[in-house]
Design a protein that fits this description.
- The chain is built from 16 helices and 10 strands.
- Helix 13 links the parallel strand 7 and strand 8.
- The chain has one domain: TIM Barrel.
- The chain is globular and about 65 Å long.
- The two termini are 36 Å apart.
- It is α/β, with parallel strands linked by helices.
Length: 382
């Protein structure tokens, strides 16, 4: 594969998206310390190079929550992803299906559950926040089951939204009313390709899953106001039990950074968890996922399936996370950049790159199957 054939999807996204949308994908909270740590700490994980191991045949497939898949990877939930390309969540879900991996739809998606489910043939995962209106949550859970969602990803690290200063500076979250619309409209017009393909031809831009409660007030300022007023800061472990009692399929708790919290989740009937700091978008200064993962995997890895996200930019990073104790990973910004840069084809190409890079990493660490990846391939500090 020629280097020239590998696009910089982050740069393509920056060029093609209005500033307020690119900053929403790219940014973190406060000074973005955790955002940087996620990438740097993962890059610092050293692997043992092994030789003469017969790596002629390599197998990247795995099984997560009873379903076989081609890679130990899923596309994680991204809010507002339907604005990154025309009907973006549907296109990303199609790319995931073609690659043989799960797609997880955010509660805060542009495309609703029904639309995404109609666009693919295999079941998708659905991500849920704890919302004050429990009747609305019950309806969402019932609807997710009705469209054959195969797993529920329950995000627990957002009782209140983090302070994301880039969103305020760009006008996404900090410029309400007419002033905000003019500011975002000016940024959109500066990207005429996006303005036509997504802004005009990609309508409607309602937030499909929460449209029933937003009603006609479906602008971006209404979305952020709804988040502030409806995410539940009183959430406790009792609410995880409440969700567990209303969801019959695999339940994955996303947003765990502490081993004691992981043990509690396992004791309350979770089937899996995602070691995650919300991509550095919530509490700035937390440990990176790469640093938090080993202790959590050691604490509960024999009781439930441990996944991880945060800072994963390559197939080599996927292998690093597996070596640190994860059974699989969720990709976030990687697929959002690719979707913005080249649509469905971009996501498909990004996944091809992930698989190719994983094959090289497995071969050069002497592994022939992803199940062979373990802490044994890590270089230990002297």
């Amino acid at each position: 594969m020629k280097v020239a054939a590998i696009p910089d999807y982050r740069e393509l996204a920056r060029r093609r998206l209005p500033k307020f949308l690119f900053e929403y994908i790219d940014g973190g909270s406060y000074a973005e310390v955790t955002l940087r740590r996620n990438v740097l700490d993962l890059e610092a994980v050293s692997l043992r190079q092994r030789v003469l191991r017969n790596v002629l045949t390599l197998d990247l497939s795995t099984e997560l929550f009873g379903t076989k898949q081609s890679l130990p990877v899923a596309l994680g939930p991204i809010g507002l992803a339907g604005l990154n390309a025309r009907r973006g969540e549907v296109r990303a879900a199609r790319a995931a299906e073609a690659a043989g991996i799960p797609f997880c739809l955010s509660t805060l998606s542009v495309c609703a559950l029904d639309e995404v489910a109609r666009g693919i043939t295999r079941p998708l995962w659905f991500q849920l926040y704890m919302i004050r209106d429990r009747a609305f949550m019950c309806d969402l859970l019932a609807h997710a089951a009705a469209v054959r969602c195969s797993a529920l990803v329950f995000t627990v690290d957002m009782p209140v939204p983090g302070s994301r200063y880039r969103d305020i500076r760009s006008g996404l979250a900090g410029a309400p009313g007419l002033a905000g619309k003019v500011r975002r409209g000016t940024q959109a017009l500066a990207k005429p390709r996006w303005a036509w393909d997504v802004g005009i031809c990609g309508r409607p831009h309602t937030l499909g899953n929460i449209a029933p409660v937003l009603g006609k007030n479906s602008g971006l300022e209404d979305f952020f106001a709804w988040m502030r007023n409806n995410f539940d800061p009183s959430v406790t472990w009792n609410d995880l039990e409440w969700v567990r009692s209303r969801w019959q399929g695999p339940l994955i708790v996303k947003g765990i950074l502490d081993a004691s919290d992981a043990r509690t989740a396992a004791g309350l009937g979770a089937d899996g968890l995602v070691v995650s700091n919300h991509g550095g978008r919530q509490l700035d200064g937390t440990p990176s996922t790469a640093r938090a993962l080993p202790a959590i995997a050691a604490a509960v890895g024999d009781r439930l399936t441990v996944l991880a996200d945060g800072g994963i930019r390559s197939g080599l990073d996927v292998v690093r996370m597996l070596a640190l104790g994860a059974s699989g990973v969720l990709l976030g910004r990687s697929w959002a950049y690719a979707l913005a840069g080249r649509g469905e084809d971009g996501v498909s190409h990004m996944l091809e790159l992930i698989a190719a890079e994983m094959r090289v990493a497995l071969a050069l660490t002497g592994c022939t199957h992803v199940r062979d990846v373990s802490p044994e391939i890590l270089v230990r500090d002297l």
